[in-house]
Amino acid sequence: MPHAVAAPAVAPAALLQLESIGMAYGQPPRLFYALRDVNLQIADGEFVCLVGPSGCGKSTLLRLVAGLLAPTEGRVLYRGEALSGVNPHTAIVFQTFALFPWLTVVENVEVALKARGVAPAARRERAQRLIELVGLAGFEDAYPRELSGGMRQKAGFARALAVEPELLCLDEPFSALDVLSAEALRGELLELWTRHAMPTRAILMVTHNIEEAVELADRIVVMAKDPGRVLTEVRVDLRHPRRRQDTAFQALADHVYAAVTGRTGTEAEVLGAAPGAPGATRKLPAARLEAIAGLVEKLAADGGRADLPRLAAEFGMELDDLMPLVEAAERLGLVRIEQGDLHLLALGHGYADASIPVRKEILAGRVLRVPLVRWIYETLQRDDNQRIVRSFFVDALRNEFGDKADEQLDVAIDWGRYADLFAYDEDAAELYLES
Predict the structure, then answer these.
(1) Residue 348 to residues 112, 359, 398, Cα–Cα distance (Å)
(2) Hey, what domains does the chain have and what are their CATH numbers?
(3) What confidence tens digit (pLDDT) does each residue in 312-350 have?
């Protein structure tokens, strides 16, 4: 009896297709292309994230998908049909909540249903069910001003889900939230998605946060600018839930980061090796990470490039005093030094455009990749009490830094505390992990 032959796996059907999309402004010969020759597919069952530098057209692309804009070149296909006008199968959640302040939570969720002619009783029932689904039960009659940022964004999710979109579009939906609220809401969205608790068939999300994309997406589309275009795509095959501290997560995030910034060196070449590992352990520059914001904002205001001596003069500093801050920003992937000039990289542009909580989250994700800081964090994790006396680390670092071991540990502690990775008890002279 002949062996049975397995049928070939059937690829998921494409919900969305973008074919040679271009978006131009102005009149010939002075045309500015926000997007050019963009080709992209979103399959049924996919969670896709768009990442890239500020100005690469991520949000514009989202609006084209939703039919809020029409491309000047190419076409948008949904389930094989060319899109004309607003896409009735999509809904968008914006970063600024976009709730009507004069309506209660339940009335905000009902808005789109009312516009579609759903009967009052039916729309109230659906709104109540969605409010409970996103964790806002008990706040149906509250007004937006009475809610926290995370709760307002939950209301935005409920309103988007009310129309039961096949494709849910998210435009940096967590960037206006504080770090803890964003983390909690990401977890709730992921739980709804992985449990198939909502009718959505696919999600397309714009984010500047690479760690966020690796945590959520099945596929990450990396875009470049001038003009906006698809640079590469990265599959994310990690199982949920994904932990940012895991080696595989960090390696994948670094791969995406390298694609965004155009970095070609390996992690060890750029950041050095962990203490005790093969390769050199690079010294950390003695710079406080809080000061990076001013440097990046100045570069962004100067068009993303500045002469280092002139920059030092404008800050009222000697060049030698400015260099540790510049080196820290370079080590964390925000800037690059070339022939005496400082260039703002894609991640730096995203940092400059982000809110204060999101800026801290960006730096926290990058700090965890610094081998010296990560070595301390992982050493604390392996300890039964997750608390280790300072002298242990100093002794270990003397092999790498000699009489500068204490100084290097102080910098590493400062960076680790800023990233909320670990804490330091000065009275007991102990490093520890906070619960």
Answers:
(1) 37, 10, 33
(2) 46-73+86-259 (3.40.50.300), 289-366 (1.10.10.10), 371-432 (no CATH)
(3) 888 888 877 888 899 899 888 898 887 667 888 888 888
